[in-house]
Automatic annotation (TrEMBL), chain A:
Pfam families: LrgA. It is a multi-pass membrane protein. It comes from Mesobacillus campisalis. This is Membrane protein. The keyword Ligase does not apply. NCBIfam families: PRK01658.1. It is found in: Cell membrane.
From TrEMBL, chain B:
It is found in: Cell membrane. Keywords: Cell membrane, Membrane, Transmembrane, Transmembrane helix. The chain crosses the membrane at residues 6-25, 32-54, 60-79, 91-111, 146-168, 180-196, 208-228. It comes from the Bacteria. It is a multi-pass membrane protein. Coiled coil: none annotated. GO terms for cellular component: plasma membrane. Pfam families: LrgB. The keyword Cell membrane applies. The lineage of its organism: Bacteria, Bacillati, Bacillota, Bacilli, Bacillales. This is LrgB.
Length: 134, 230
């Protein structure tokens, strides 16, 4: 029974994916169908058009094996043995360095914003309290 | 019939390799044992030994890849569960993703120019931090090569997931929001699955970042390419 519900919920996720892909093709968008489907499903969940129960099991299962879904694509690297040449090594080096840099910059910047935001709300609350007591 | 059996064997190989490597990773949890990396290596070695070309492997592999679409759609579920955080931190998230996207694209473009990599290749690696279907489109739009873009996206994904714990430690990034957005916007879905190891909040922040990055990236890619003057 549980397998049947999961398969049925897969069907719903597929439906959103197809709708997303259709929208992408119809309007010739650069954003892929899966991302459009994600946004649509999110909106439908928030507006309670689709109850959470209807996708809960299927989504949890798919997300638990999300990495597996990438493996066939990553195996495709075997078609590019030229990555081991000098140009390839430089290319890989640029990608690795840049990925590291952007993780470091983004992580630090966001943590900074977040702390600043928290401080601001704290100050506002303090002001409220002090004005009240005054 | 024989073809169907072969395709089935390839699916079985992928699934077995993945679950075996996941078990290994859970047991020892060294970051270099990341399942996506070890399973990929294991499968490539098997294919090379058995002399099976990638095209044949994909007869089975494409069935697994076809689940990727609904898999990305399923990310709406953790987003929905964390929607209150999304509303509360909407400015932080939007600003963070914007910074991450620009820094990722600009740094890779600049680095490859400094290293003397040719223009077509450089244009193909600029969208490396976007999720692969978007990266392919952006790379082609810029005048690069879609399949090289996919390889670069894969490398950025795996490396980001591998290096992130060390980078977070070095830069003292402890906030789940900061970690999630950094992972999602630099390493798309592979980073997002790494983010799931931290917490549910990190996971959903990473999913939001990945989706936003894909949307923002389609606009910023051409600007970055223009700034680096190709």
């Amino acid at each position: 029974m549980k397998i049947l519900t999961t398969v049925f919920q897969f069907g719903i996720l597929y439906l959103f994916y197809f709708i997303g892909s259709y929208i992408q093709n119809y309007f010739h968008l650069a954003i892929p169908g899966s991302i459009i489907g994600l946004l649509l499903l999110f909106i439908c969940l928030c507006l309670k058009i689709v109850p959470v129960k209807l996708i809960e099991n299927g989504a949890t299962f798919l997300l638990s094996i999300l990495v597996l879904l990438f493996v066939p694509t990553t195996v495709g690297i075997m078609n590019y043995p030229s990555l081991l040449s000098i140009h390839g090594v430089l290319l890989v080096a640029a990608i690795l360095l840049s990925t590291g840099i952007s993780i470091a910059i983004a992580g630090t910047a966001i943590q900074f914003f977040e702390k600043k935001g928290q401080k601001r709300t704290e100050v506002q609350e303090c002001n409220k309290l002090s004005s009240r007591s005054a | 019939m024989q073809q169907a059996l072969f395709a089935f064997c390839m699916i079985l190989l992928t699934v077995l390799a993945y679950f075996a490597m996941t078990k290994l990773y859970k047991r020892y949890s060294y970051s270099f044992l990341l399942p996506v990396l070890t399973a990929t290596v294991l499968i490539i070695v098997t294919l090379v030994i058995l002399n099976i070309p990638y095209k044949d492997y994909m007869m089975g592999g494409q069935w697994i890849t076809s689940l990727l679409g609904p898999g990305v759609v399923a990310l709406a579920y953790p987003l929905y569960k964390q929607r209150h955080y999304l509303m509360k931190y909407s400015f932080t998230i939007a600003g963070g993703v914007l910074i991450a996207t620009i820094s990722g694209m600009f740094s890779v473009g600049l680095l490859s120019k400094i290293l003397g990599i040719n223009d077509t290749l450089t244009l193909s690696i600029i969208p490396k931090s976007l999720t692969s279907p978007v990266a392919m489109e952006v790379a082609e739009g810029l005048g690069g090569n879609a399949s090289i873009a996919t390889v670069c996206v894969t490398l950025a994904g795996i490396f980001g997931a591998l290096a992130a714990p060390a980078i977070f430690k070095m830069m003292r990034v402890h906030s789940p929001i900061g970690r999630g957005i950094a992972l999602g916007s630099a390493s798309h879905a592979i980073g997002t699955s790494k983010a799931a190891e931290y917490s549910e909040l990190t996971f959903s922040m990473s999913s939001v970042a990945m989706a936003l990055c894909a949307i923002i990236g389609t606009f910023i890619g051409p600007i970055v390419a223009g700034l680096l003057r190709f």
